[in-house]
Design goal:
There is one protein chain. By secondary structure, the chain is α/β, with parallel strands linked by helices. It is about 45% helix and about 15% strand. It has 13 helices and eight strands. Strand 5 and strand 6 form a beta hairpin. Helix 1 crosses helix 12 and helix 2 packs across helix 6. The chain is globular and about 60 Å long.
Length: about 350
């Protein structure tokens, strides 16, 4: 989809509008859940968006969201998001990592039983992407470049502040790409899983998936945005009821814990500062009080196999989108009144 930059349509002044920032986690194809959340939020004219901090699949959602808002407002953003995810599905249609027709019929969205996946899983454990992908092919690049005009996102008049996180391979530090640096390479760097793709090089530095150091980073929203409300859209479950016992399940849980750790560290810092303000130990006029909210459906994500993060089947993506829409609908009904007033999430119970 192509278009030139113009202001988003004005929201009617007759109703109260609350402005929030979004923090979008990564999680491969599970990012379609966040697509559904965004789709529902874009319908809600009582909620305005100021900034988005995102990682991996969240970065792709964020780029599509920001581009759509820039060229045509809410309706265009919904269209761009759907176009992107359906193009992802089309690009993977003939790939080996798709469920069989029987799996689809039975509602089994995992790939664990697929011989093709077993072979692929083994290959990624024995060989690096520099060996099994010598041409450095990444079909997501073509999908992104067909869907988003990144020059529009770099325009200072773009209505949404955008922050995309990646991990510097050499230093191990987080790199946050702001609006002036946004390009296809920045999005791909944010989503670069080191066992699947070569590190993405930008400006002489190499980057891997941002999930290792910021999934997503909250501090750009604190320092770069005026709104005190941050809505975290969770993809990776923070809690699992069962102890993993297979090698694959253990690795998946290790990755989930690792990819949630940076978010938990930032939430501890937010809770610490909030406690100091509430207890009168610091002058609240010189520190920013943050209101934290979360949209999550752990019961949906826990039920999915880890390998379904590679499943780009259109039916599966729409299944997650619909789950995201339902979850956002429930969240709005219960928590809209809290925006701008207090956190709707117990940070201590959720993250500490």
């Amino acid at each position: 989809m192509e278009g030139s930059l113009h202001p988003a349509p004005a929201i009617g002044a007759a109703q109260e509008v609350k402005t929030v920032n979004l923090a979008l986690q990564g999680g491969g194809a599970h990012g379609a859940f966040a697509w559904g959340v965004l789709d529902r939020l874009l319908e809600e004219e009582r909620v305005a968006l100021e900034g988005v901090s995102a990682t991996s699949a969240g970065a792709m959602n964020a780029a599509c969201l920001a581009y759509g808002l820039a060229i045509g407002g809410r309706a265009a953003a919904r269209e761009v998001l759907e176009t992107f995810w359906m193009r992802v599905s089309e690009a993977a249609t003939f790939g080996p990592l798709q469920p069989s027709w029987l799996d689809r019929l039975q509602g089994n969205w995992g790939l664990e039983g697929s011989p093709a996946f077993t072979l692929f899983d083994l290959a990624t454990r024995l060989f690096s992407p520099y060996e099994f992908n010598p041409l450095n092919l990444n079909p997501l690049r073509a999908v992104l470049e067909r869907t988003v005009d990144f020059a529009v996102l770099r325009d200072a008049a773009a209505p949404l502040k955008l922050y995309l996180s990646a991990t510097n391979v050499r230093t191990g530090r987080i790199k946050v790409f702001d609006r002036s640096e946004i390009c296809a390479d920045a999005v791909l760097a944010s989503a670069c899983l080191p066992f699947l793709f070569r590190a993405v090089e930008i400006g002489g530095e190499a980057y891997w998936d941002g999930g290792y150091m910021g999934n997503p980073a909250i501090f750009p929203l604190i320092y770069g945005c005026g709104s005190a409300d941050v809505v975290v859209v969770h993809i990776n479950p923070t809690m699992r009821p069962d102890i993993p016992r297979t090698a694959r399940d253990i690795l998946n849980r290790v990755n989930e814990i690792s990819f949630n750790s940076s978010l938990m560290r930032e939430m501890r810092a937010i809770h610490f500062v909030t406690s100091l303000i509430d207890n009168g130990q610091v002058d609240g006029r010189h520190l920013k009080r943050m209101f934290v909210h979360a949209i999550a459906a752990d019961e949906v994500m826990v039920s999915l196999g880890a390998q379904s993060k590679l499943n780009a089947d259109a039916g599966f993506l729409r299944h997650l989108r619909d789950a995201g829409r339902r979850t956002a609908e429930t969240w709005l009904a219960s928590n809209w009144q809290h925006l701008g007033a207090r956190s709707s999430l117990d940070i201590k119970a959720a993250y500490l």
